[in-house]
Design a protein that fits this description.
Layout: H1 5-16, H2 21-26, H3 31-46, H4 51-81
Helix pairs in contact: 3-4
């Protein structure tokens, strides 16, 4: 899990700091996290990934799925509030 820790820590810090529906709806991973995922995807296409890198990419995809679901729920909450 050490390879995916930075992405997890971003999410943990975001949640731990307290949040609002607006913040969830607009949350984006850091440029560094986005760059890392782009690199992994490119390398996966070109030459394949090590087992650790594949696990890192898989974990990021799981996080992305959770964030998409949270963003959708946050948008529903915001729509009901208006």
């Amino acid at each position: 899990m050490s390879a995916v820790s930075p992405a997890y820590f971003e999410i943990i810090d975001f949640i731990a700091a307290g949040t609002t529906s607006e913040a969830v709806a607009s949350f984006r991973p850091s440029p560094e996290a986005q760059q890392r995922v782009a690199e992994l995807i490119e390398r996966e296409k070109e030459s394949g990934l090590s087992r650790e890198e594949k696990a890192e990419l898989d974990h990021f995809e799981e996080l992305e799925h959770i964030l998409r679901m949270a963003k959708a729920k946050a948008r529903q909450i915001l729509a009901r509030a208006h």
